[in-house]
Write a structure and sequence with these properties.
Elements: E1 4-11, H1 15-26, E2 34-39, H2 46-52, E3 57-60, H3 67-75, E4 86-92, E5 95-97, H4 101-110, E6 115-124, E7 130-133, E8 136-138, E9 144-146, E10 151-152, E11 172-174, H5 175-181, H6 193-203, E12 207-218, H7 232-250, H8 256-276, H9 281-295, H10 298-310, H11 325-340, H12 359-374, E13 383-384, H13 394-399, E14 403-406, E15 412-415, H14 419-428, H15 435-458, H16 466-475, H17 478-485, H18 489-507, H19 512-528, H20 533-546, H21 551-554, H22 559-574, H23 596-600, H24 611-617, H25 625-642, H26 649-671, E16 673-677, E17 680-683, H27 687-707, H28 712-731, H29 733-736, E18 742-743, H30 751-759, E19 764-770, E20 776-782, H31 793-796, H32 803-815, H33 824-829, E21 832-837, H34 841-852, H35 862-879, E22 884-889, E23 894-898, H36 916-936, E24 945-948, E25 957-960
Length: 966
């Protein structure tokens, strides 16, 4: 019986393709018996073009109808089938068949009566020699795979015949089979609809083949019908949704519950894989499709019922047509090779080597300088002094992160400083004794800073020696040395990380790995030196605005930092002190007042970068110290300003802007007094801002050295010598006696207290210390003493005393003076076991004698006499208190013990993880940081850098030929 063909042409806003497609159908050697045109809600003149065509029928389908639903609308007006030899030819508006396409398709099915579905070779719309698609299959886990895609047609695949599936574009299908199978699955509106139909046809006992001689041009077909463009996220979501739907439909009844239960866990695992593969946009799509598949069960039930109704064969019938794992790997490798070979790779010059470029010698040189400066810490188990205290055990470090009970003073519930994460990570490097990590950091600080600066400086030049010079300048920068010497650990860590932040931020626009790495370093820098946050945010905004096309890679850089700071910000705002967010983490340490001129000379701690003390030591006029420092800084300042007028100024201008931001940050820091030590307010350490200032100056000077040609070597020698001389007093501060940090003590509290606290860490010790004007301060320490990780800016910047603080102050005042106040209840409630009066007994006696003879002797300062009087009065009050037992003199001061109900008091505060809010904060921060870490893990091959040096008077250019991983 003669074959009868009904061609169904579905179009949706495809006027730009439709004219060619209609002409191609009209030119067919074997023309269709009927042509039914379907307008699926077009917004252009597609409907009028279809009306003018020689079609037997014109059908209007809803605008949201899928390709399969549009075909079903067409069949409603088609002539009834009269035999089993009737065929449907499915075309979309962008499928233009060659003149003999239908004839070849019909010829193939005529000689093979068992064939019910035949697919043509889909060719590129604009390139007729490129195969767009030719046959479909799926892996053992159900992932759909195009057997041939985007390959040059050299007849290499013309031997193909039976396949698992073909594309919907140009598909020739027996009408009775289409009706029996119910057409395309409505739950697969685009991707995999044709593959699923072919699988069901195979299971119903029909064959599916491809016909190499039948060629149809395709610009995309109905895979994403009616969508002019799709984002990677949308494409992934559609494909994954189709895969999960087919998996649930094809699964045996016994395995269906297991598949359903695995949807969410598998989505989480795949999300991690997406992050490692630098596809963060796919994470949301992955989770969304999993939840949708888990709870949208009605389409699965209908599809399983339809499959069960039509299936005649077992799944083993299609096993030979599935793509094995080995073939799938080979296909991926073949496509990867094609992608890698898209363009030639030409190496103009190798990048600067670490050894040949002097980086190794710069690191070794500053390492020796670091040993001179901090070699006295070698062998120590901890560092203390200035803003430093020892660290606790690793488990205690991690217990301080997030939100919960803060064991400092009387204790309170609040958010941890973001710096607690930095301390936890640093201490974990020496997990057996975390304080050793700080010792190692001090000894290796200078070479580590030099190393980071060398890699960052190499980004701005192709000449071999400027990066080494810039690295040395950064490694011995006065703000860095001052931060180390005064125990400002956060500022020191920020200085170490700033070059890496610059390096990663500049590469963030090309790579998800670099963007995530920049986000992590940004979080670490802001956590270590919160005062840098405004300046860094301005720099980040400028970076985003300068690369609008890459903004999607850059906008997330502050996100991990925001996750760390949000809980603390909420607490500070509720306390009425939002500026407290800028306070330095760690132990509040008062410093000398610093003027704007001193800051401009790079001095963070006042004076002249140690030159005043040095000149005093060698019996030279100390007044000349500022002049010497200014002269030694002159080469760096001149080279930085010269960057505005030489070739490459487009790079030096941003560097100088960074320097200006850093200087402004340093000046503002000295004007903000947010924390307090006793009765003395403490300003923000300006060294962090000066590090940023120094970074900008070095960057601008590097541009100048790169531009001035042969004269650069002389300037470089002058700059290097001047910078080394400038650092001499700071490097020798240990010899000059100005070094604040020292090897840490074996214990923070007296030995008697330390022994008790080893078994009773909840026991409290009140520390009483004399203040000026006859006052006395009181602080409370728990266990073996307050450690570095227990410090909190919420406590240091508190604008009001809590009820517990008031109670402690009243208790301390009554203990320090004779009164009838019964202190037992407060001592018991606060679990106080000891009282320490700082100041040796001999000093108190001397002070008392001096006070008594004040009229006869003018050698004793009044302040010392007043302090000694306070010590004597307090000591007498404590000795006369029947609740206290004198223990004696200790290294910390005089010690008294209280023996009462405090001996049986349990811990005074809840656990950090005991509250729901604390758990929510930890999980939220962990998810954001964890996802960023996964993104930062490098998985792609390194990009090969192509450098063109040019001549001495030409600006170097750096290009990259290999694709990025975004």
């Amino acid at each position: 019986m003669q074959q009868r063909v009904t061609a169904i042409l579905v179009a949706r806003s495809g006027a730009e393709y439709l004219q060619r497609t209609l002409a191609a159908v009209d030119r067919q050697v074997r023309r269709p018996d009927f042509l039914i045109a379907v307008d699926a809600g077009s917004s252009d003149n597609t409907a009028s073009m279809l009306a003018a065509a020689n079609a037997a029928g014109l059908v209007a389908a809803p605008a949201k109808a899928s390709f399969g639903e549009a075909v079903a609308h067409a069949l409603h007006v088609a002539a009834p089938a009269v035999s089993d030899n009737e065929w449907l030819w499915l075309l979309s508006h962008d499928n233009a068949p060659e003149a003999d396409a239908l004839a070849r398709l019909l010829g193939a099915v005529e000689i093979a009566p068992s064939v019910s579905v035949a697919g043509p070779k889909l060719m590129g719309w604009r390139r007729s020699d490129v195969i767009a698609e030719f046959g479909e299959s799926m892996t053992p886990v159900g992932t759909s795979v195009r057997l041939v895609e985007d390959e040059l047609d050299q007849a290499q695949h013309d031997i193909r015949g039976d396949v698992l599936g073909v594309a919907a574009s140009g598909m020739l299908v027996r009408r009775s089979v289409w009706t029996a199978l119910g057409g395309f699955d409505p739950a697969l509106p685009s991707t995999d609809a044709a593959l699923d139909f072919c699988v069901r046809a195979r299971l119903a006992g029909h064959r599916v083949i491809v016909v190499p001689g039948a060629r149809v041009a395709s610009a995309g077909g109905p895979q994403h019908f009616g969508r002019r463009s799709l984002s990677d996220r949308s494409r992934m979501q559609i494909a994954r949704s189709a895969q999960l739907h087919r998996r649930l439909v094809y699964a045996p009844p016994a395995a269906l519950p297991l598949h359903w239960l695995s949807l969410i866990p598998l989505a989480i695992i795949r999300s991690i894989v997406h992050l490692l593969a630098k596809r963060p946009g796919a994470v949301g799509a992955e989770l969304l499709t999993a939840f949708r598949a888990a709870f949208d069960v009605l389409p699965v039930i209908r599809a399983r019922r339809n499959l069960r109704r039509t299936r005649r064969l077992g799944w083993k019938a299609i096993t030979p047509l599935r793509l094995s794992w080995r073939r799938a790997r080979e296909q991926r490798a073949h496509r990867q090779d094609d992608d890698d070979g898209m363009g030639p790779v030409v190496y103009h010059e190798e990048p600067i080597g670490f050894v040949a470029g002097g980086g190794l010698w710069a690191v070794l040189g500053t390492g020796l300088v670091g040993l001179v400066a901090f070699g006295g810490l070698l062998g120590a188990t901890s560092v203390s002094g200035g803003g430093l205290l020892p660290l606790g055990a690793v488990n205690n470090l991690w217990a301080q992160v997030g939100y919960g009970w803060r064991e400092i003073g009387v204790g309170f519930t609040g958010a941890a400083d973001p710096f607690s994460y930095v301390l936890a990570l640093l201490g974990s490097l020496a997990f057996w004794q975390p304080s050793v990590a700080i010792v190692a950091l001090y000894v290796l600080a200078l070479p580590l800073a030099t190393l980071g600066a060398w890699f960052a400086a190499r980004r701005f030049t192709v000449r071999p020696w400027p990066p080494a010079l810039a690295a040395v300048l950064w490694g011995i920068a006065p703000p860095f040395l001052s931060s180390l010497e005064t125990g400002h650990l956060g500022a020191s860590i920020a200085h170490l990380l700033l070059p890496w932040l610059v390096l990663l931020a500049l590469a963030a626009g090309r790579s998800w790995t670099a963007a995530a790495g920049a986000a992590l370093v940004f979080a670490a820098v802001t956590a270590s030196a919160p005062v840098l946050t405004p300046a860094l945010l301005i720099m980040w905004l400028a970076l985003v605005l300068s690369q609008p096309r890459r903004a999607y890679l850059l906008v997330g850089i502050p996100l991990p930092a925001a996750a760390l700071f949000v809980p603390l910000a909420i607490d500070q705002i509720l306390r009425g002190n939002p500026l407290g967010l800028l306070a330095d983490p760690g132990v509040p340490a008062a410093g000398a007042a610093t003027s704007g001129i001193q800051l401009a000379l790079g001095s963070a701690s006042g004076g002249s970068n140690g030159w005043t003390a040095l000149l005093d030591r060698v019996l030279l006029p100390a007044a000349s110290a500022p002049i010497i420092v200014a002269a030694l800084l002159l080469p760096l300042g001149l080279l930085a300003l010269l960057g505005l007028f030489v070739r490459g100024s487009r790079r030096s201008i941003p560097a100088l802007a960074v320097a200006l931001l850093g200087y402004a940050t340093a000046v503002i820091s000295t004007r903000l007094e947010l924390a307090a030590v006793g009765s003395e307010t403490v300003g923000i350490w300006p060294g962090s801002g000066l590090s940023l200032f120094w970074l900008g100056l070095i960057g601008a000077a590097l541009v100048s050295l790169d531009a001035i040609g042969v004269a650069a070597r002389g300037f470089a020698v002058l700059l290097g010598v001047a910078s080394l001389l400038l650092a001499v007093p700071l490097v020798g501060s240990n010899l000059l006696g100005t070094l604040s940090v020292q090897p840490g003590p074996a214990r923070l509290l007296p030995a008697f207290v330390d022994a008790e606290a080893t078994s009773r860490p909840e026991l409290g010790t009140i520390i009483l210390a004399p203040e000026g004007d006859g006052a006395i301060s009181a602080s409370l320490e728990r266990g073996r003493g307050t450690l570095l990780e227990q410090q909190s800016t919420l406590d240091a910047t508190a604008v009001e005393m809590s009820d517990a603080d008031v109670r402690l102050a009243n208790l301390a005042g009554n203990l320090a003076s004779r009164s009838g106040y019964d202190s037992a209840a407060d001592l018991d409630d606060l679990a106080i076991g000891f009282i320490v009066l700082e100041g040796a007994e001999a000093d108190a006696d001397a002070g008392a004698d001096a006070s008594a003879d004040a009229d006869a002797s003018a050698d004793v300062p009044l302040d010392d006499a007043a302090e000694a009087a306070v010590l004597r009065r307090t000591q007498d009050a404590l000795d006369g208190n029947s609740l206290l037992v004198p223990v004696g003199e200790t290294s910390r001061g005089l010690l008294w013990r209280y023996v009462g109900e405090a001996d049986s008091v349990a811990a005074t505060g809840p656990s950090n993880t005991g509250s729901v809010l604390g758990l929510i904060v930890l999980i939220s921060q962990g998810l954001i940081i964890g996802m960023t870490v996964l993104l930062a893990v490098p998985t792609a091959r390194r990009r090969r850098q192509h450098v063109s040096r040019g001549t001495e008077n030409e600006e170097p250019a750096t290009t990259f030929d290999e694709d990025t991983d975004d």
